[in-house]
Amino acid sequence: MSADRGALPERADFVEVLLPDGRRLANRVRVARGLLSRFFGLMGQREVPPGEGIWLVPCRSIHMFFMRTAIDLLFLDAEGEVVRSVSRMRPWSLRPFSVTLVPVRGARSTLELAPGTLERMGFSPPARLLLRPAPGLSPQPQLTLE
Q: What is the pTM of this model?
């Protein structure tokens, strides 16, 4: 399996997300590649535990309909560079319109994380994230989006 720029392991079900300084932003992020898994995402979950989330690939905008909890969002380009971040997006919210009604310019995928993750980690763009199969959860080799 190649670790080409922007490629995903074919069978990785979970990834971990690392910041450029090596700190772990999340250790168990489910990968959603299919139309239905991306549409439903985290819909219906009462909470997103710290360190967990979902990576929607491809995804340039999101909806908050039928969500039961707030989430933090990171929109990534093909190289893993964060092109937009939103903290504590509320359930049923249409704001900001630029992530719910209009595709985010340059985005190729979206990370939905537990609310407060970005604040707790002191995260602010710009940053290029490292996404790789989560240890013990996916048998594939490391993936870099650098």
A: 0.84
